[in-house]
Amino acid sequence: MELLWKSHMKIHVIRLVSAVFLVILLSSEKAESRKAKIVTNSFEYSAINCRAHSASLTDFGGVGDGITSNTKAFQYAISNLSQYATEGGAQLYVPAGKWLTGSFSLTSHFTLYLDKDAVLLASQDITEWPVIQPLPSYGRGRDAAAGRFTSLIFGTNLTDVIVTGDNGTIDGQGEFWWQQFHKKKLKYTRPYLIELMFSDSIQISNLTLLNSPSWNVHPVYSSNIIVKGITIIAPITSPNTDGINPDSCTNTRIEDCYIVSGDDCVAVKSGWDEYGIKFGWPTKQLVIRRLTCISPFSATIALGSEMSGGIQDVRAEDITAIHTESGVRIKTAVGRGGFVKDIYVQKMTMHTMKWVFWITGNYGSHADTHYDPNALPEITNINYRDMVADNVTMAARLEGISNDPFTGICIANVTIGLAAKAKKQPWTCADIEGITSGVTPQPCNLLPDQGPEKITACDFPTESLPIDRLELKKCTYSMKYA
After folding, report:
1. pLDDT (tens digit, 0 to 9) for every residue of the chain, 482 residues total?
2. Which residues participate in catalysis according to the annotation?
3. DSSP result, 210-246
4. Distance (Å, rounded) from C-alpha 277 to C-alpha 311?
5. Which of 303, 387, 429, 446 is most enclosed, with most CB atoms within 10 A?
6. Could you tell me if 332 and 361 are in contact, meaning their C-beta atoms sit under 8 angstroms apart?
7. Rounded to the nearest 5°, which phi and psi values hold at 125?
């Protein structure tokens, strides 16, 4: 009996030891499994400034499943990282995944970096889009007279802000907003994808922006801005999906961007009617280069229509437009006031266009009925040179304002090939003054040909602007995140 009892106890002990060993083994495997989920990613990019501190969105509870809202995670992360503003700045890394989020605001000395497989999905929950006041230089929202929804990525009164990535994606899921706009159900103006206000030293680069509710990139009342390597895509029928809109900004560089949109690829602005005149912040010292645009119903580069604070010293070169309504368009009207002057465009190639040049002095769409009918815009010193276009419906439509002619228009070394069904009259001109040289087909009488010896007559500045002298630094990081 005793022997049987001892044998039983031995078996029991063996089973107990085996069970303990199994628990330890499983715990170890779970621990190893947890360790295996820690990812290390090394990357580098060029930026106006590098950061001393980095963290991942997952460190702050972010979930990249495309379903969970990350609005609070972004807000918490940025608030936490703001403590490093005076200690070398901070970077928030967004890993691969689909990160659903509403509007969130950035901080100074900060970088938001999107992994190449990261997608920010704009929330369809309207409560995640706070409403703010209209822009003071506009006096009202553009979609509705009241306020406007805060942009997806927003910031105001900031210094040294970077939004970049390894061509990561920001998807505005704009169909929801476009339908509301068309049905006239919006009480407030639609949000933009990226908007920074009253800020200095801004970089927006190496991202893909899809289906914005309205404008894509909107720096406003800001200075020292680089927008580089951005791909913007929206349906060509989507309403007001402008690509890049520098608005009352100084010293801006837009380069190496590809834009397909339902509105102007680049729209240069500075306020609307009496509100823009009163606010008085022009857009000036703007460089646009190596831009490719597709927009069948709008312009490659538009100056206006909201230009009441003035637009001066814009330099655009190496531009390609394909199946786009117009190459360069100036949009203004009685009541706008302000000015568009010292505009320089060279080396532009266009394929399948409605107009190559379009200047409109009767563009409507006023902010309200209180605009000053005596506020006439000044349009002068507009220079185009070294351009070629094919399959064009009409070479130019240039219409100034009666008793307020647009002056100093210079067009040189431009060859325009007309489409098989082109207009019989390739140029229409009214209330303008200027000259041409080496332009085909022959321009209107208000732009007399100065002869081939004046082929270089139209100016393009040789001195660089301050933003061109800003060199980017190479930043290298190695991130560990769950």
Report:
1. 444 444 444 444 444 434 434 434 444 444 444 444 798 999 999 999 999 999 999 999 999 999 999 999 999 999 999 999 999 999 999 999 999 999 999 999 999 999 999 999 999 999 999 999 999 999 999 999 999 999 999 999 999 999 999 999 999 999 999 999 999 999 999 999 999 999 999 999 999 999 999 999 999 999 999 999 999 999 999 999 999 999 999 999 999 999 999 999 999 999 999 999 999 999 999 999 999 999 999 999 999 999 999 999 999 999 999 999 999 999 999 999 999 999 999 999 999 999 999 999 999 899 999 999 999 999 999 999 999 999 999 999 999 999 999 999 999 999 999 999 999 999 999 999 999 999 999 999 999 999 988 888 899 999 999 999 999 999 999 988 88
2. 263
3. E--SS-SEEEES-EEEEEEEEEEE--TTSTT--SB--
4. 12
5. 303
6. yes
7. -85, 110
Tokens of 69: 């809202």
Mapped onto helix, strand or coil, the DSSP state of residue 125 is coil
Residues 356, 350: contact at Cβ < 8 Å? yes
Look at residue 300 and give its three-state secondary structure. Answer: strand
Q: Are 264 and 299 in contact (CB under 8 A)?
A: yes
CA 168 to chain centre: 14
Structure tokens given for 182:
């068309």
The C-alpha atoms of residue 362 and residue 254 are separated, in whole angstroms, by 28
